[in-house]
Automatic annotation (TrEMBL):
Gene3D superfamilies: BFD-like [2Fe-2S]-binding domain (1.10.10.1100). This is Ferredoxin. Pfam families: Fer2_BFD. The lineage of its organism: Bacteria, Pseudomonadati, Pseudomonadota, Alphaproteobacteria, Caulobacterales. Residues 2-51 form the BFD-like [2Fe-2S]-binding domain. It comes from the Bacteria.
Length: 61
């Protein structure tokens, strides 16, 4: 499924960027060599980052 239609970023692209250390949507765009266009995807990216942090915190316990 696409997260960013403007840049053609799929969920797996965003997830890979987060796994590689992206902490902000800006980092995700940079990792994929693009930039925000309409920014409708930024909220979903933030949600994915937050979920990843929560999962990591639970795994660390």
């Amino acid at each position: 499924m696409y997260v960013c239609n403007c840049n053609g970023l799929r969920q797996r692209d965003v997830a890979q960027a987060i796994e590689a250390g992206a902490c902000r949507p800006r980092d995700i765009f940079a990792r994929n060599q693009c930039q925000a266009q309409c920014a409708k995807c930024v909220c979903e990216m933030r949600q994915m980052i937050q979920e990843s942090r929560e999962a990591f915190a639970l795994a660390a316990e």
